[in-house]
UniProtKB/TrEMBL annotation:
It comes from Pseudomonas pudica. Gene3D superfamilies: Cyclophilin-like (2.40.100.10). The keyword Hydrolase applies. It comes from the Bacteria. The keyword Metal-binding does not apply. InterPro entries: CT_A_B, Cyclophilin-like_dom_sf, PxpC. Keywords: ATP-binding, Hydrolase, Nucleotide-binding. NCBIfam families: urea_amlyse_rel. This is Biotin-dependent carboxyltransferase. Residues 25-304 form the Carboxyltransferase domain. It holds the Pfam family CT_A_B.
Amino acid sequence: MKQLKIEASTPLCQLQDAGRFGVRHLGVTQGGALDWVAMHWANWLLGNPLAAPVVEVALGGFCVVAEQDCVLALAGADLDARVDDQPLAPWRSFALAKGQRLSLKQPKQGVRAYLAAPGGFLGEDVLGSRATVVREELGGIDGHGSALGKGQALAFSGTSANLREVPEALRPQYAQKPVLDLVMGAQIGDFSGTSLFEAFNREWTLDSRADRMGIRLLGPQLVYQGAPMISEGIPLGAVQVPPDGQPIVLLNDRQTIGGYPRLGALTPLALAQLAQCMPGAVVRFRAVVQDEAWREQQVYLDRWR
C-alpha cells in the first residue's frame, strides 16, 4: 500500500467515484464526480476501472506529499498544478518521487481537476460507493462524508502504470460560452410561449449561489402556466423552475424528489461541461430529444472501449 499525505485542502476537495445507485427510494442522493468525463480520463490514464475513486479538487488549494515513489494521473481543469516548483499540465500520468510535493493552486482554465492513483484511492464503501456527500454524511475516507483535510493520508494499493497522455484531439474543450444540450421534459409545454423562446434563445449566467447540489441560473423570468405539481423523482441534470422564474440545474448531491416544474434535464455530456464553468460564466441551452442525446453519449463512451 502507498500513501499521499495531505498538506493542504479545502471543503471542495473530496473523494468521489461514479456515485451511489439503487438507493434513491430510501431518500439517499447519488453523489459522485461532477465532471464524469474528466474522472474517466484520469482513471483511463492509469488503466483503472473508469469509475474508480478519485480526488475531486474544485478551485485549487490542494497539496499532497508522496510517502513512496508512485505514478499518479491528473485530468480536467488546469489548476496551475506543480510538482515541487515545476509546472504540471493536466491530461497525463506522471511520476511522483518519495518526498515530492504535488500542489494544485488556482484555476487557469476550468474549475474541477481529478487526481487518480493506481487502483483508485481507498475509503469506506457505504451503500455501494465511496462518493463523498457531506450533507448526508456518507462516503469519503472515513465513511462519514467528510471532505479531505490537512494531515489525512490518501492510500492506494494498485500497481504503477506506464506514463501516457490523453490525445489532444480527445481532450474536452472548456468553451467560454458552452451550449448545453437539454432533453425536453414532461412539463415543458406548460411554460408560456415567450418563456420557451427565451429559454433556448437567450444567454444564462451562472449565479454565485452554486454547490454540488445545484447551480442557479440568472436570465429572463420563465413563466409556468400549468397546474400545481405533486412532488416527483428528480433526475440528474434536471432544470427546475421555482416561482421566481430563474432555473436551477440540479447536480449530483440534489434532493431525491421535488415539486417544481422542469424544462427537462441536461445530458450527461452537458453536465460535464457545466461542472467546469465558473460563477459568472455564460451558457445557452439547446433542445434535444432523448434519442439524439443517447446516440451522442454512445459515441463518446466508445472512446474508452
